[in-house]
Design a protein that fits this description.
By secondary structure, the chain is of the alpha+beta class. The protein contains five helices and seven strands. Strands 1, 2, 3, 4, 5, 6 and 7 form a seven-stranded mixed β-sheet that branches. Helix 3 runs antiparallel to helix 5.
């Protein structure tokens, strides 16, 4: 019954419908690739994930530095982050708290998703986490983590996982960062 929430949800749904229509048009015309990588603002992207994944939930906190740009596919990056957020909510149950932090670390753009869920053993992380059809969830297929890791790797990035049973999970997605438009490097400054 919150009008602001309803407006945000309508805008999000319109965005998704627009992207789906664009994808369908490209598939019908036989164009390949469907979409080339382009600059994506991670701060904007996590706000959209917040609108979709946290609908009706109060346990999502976002801390985002503006203008953290990467070269990628907006919809696929949104799925990666959305998958991590959804897993965090599922792992935390009714008292789930999930935090997303977007920052820069040297030449990397970093999206960190942390939850207060049940956590995972080091053995599960090492032997099963990024393998398809292996999941710690009874209803999980293990596809989301595998696809996410494969896509992040294809962009020249990596995923780091820190977790322990009963301690929650922290996943860091590190991607090569782009400089914001107009950003100067030391070599570009006038003498």
């Amino acid at each position: 019954a919150n009008p602001e929430f309803q407006r945000d949800m309508l805008a999000t749904v319109e965005h998704v419908v627009g992207r789906m229509n664009q994808l369908m048009q490209q598939l019908r015309s036989g164009e390949t690739p469907v979409e080339n990588p382009r600059p994506v603002d991670l701060s904007t992207l996590v706000r959209r994930v917040q609108a979709v994944r946290a609908a009706g939930r109060s346990g999502l906190h976002i801390e985002a530095v503006p203008d953290v740009l990467v070269n990628g596919h907006e919809d696929r990056l949104e799925r990666v982050i959305g998958h991590l957020v959804q897993n965090g909510f599922e792992a935390g149950g009714d008292d789930a708290k999930v935090a997303i932090r977007v920052s820069r670390d040297g030449h990397h753009a970093v999206v960190e998703v942390a939850d207060n869920g049940v956590g995972m053993t080091p053995e599960f992380i090492r032997d099963h986490l990024f393998r398809p059809f292996q999941s710690s969830k009874t209803s999980g297929m293990g596809i989301g983590a595998y696809e996410s890791q494969q896509y992040v790797t294809s962009l020249g990035g990596r995923m780091e996982v820190a977790s322990a049973p009963g301690q929650g999970t922290r996943v860091r997605v590190l991607l090569p960062a782009l400089r914001p438009a107009g950003a100067a490097t030391a070599q570009e400054l006038p003498a």
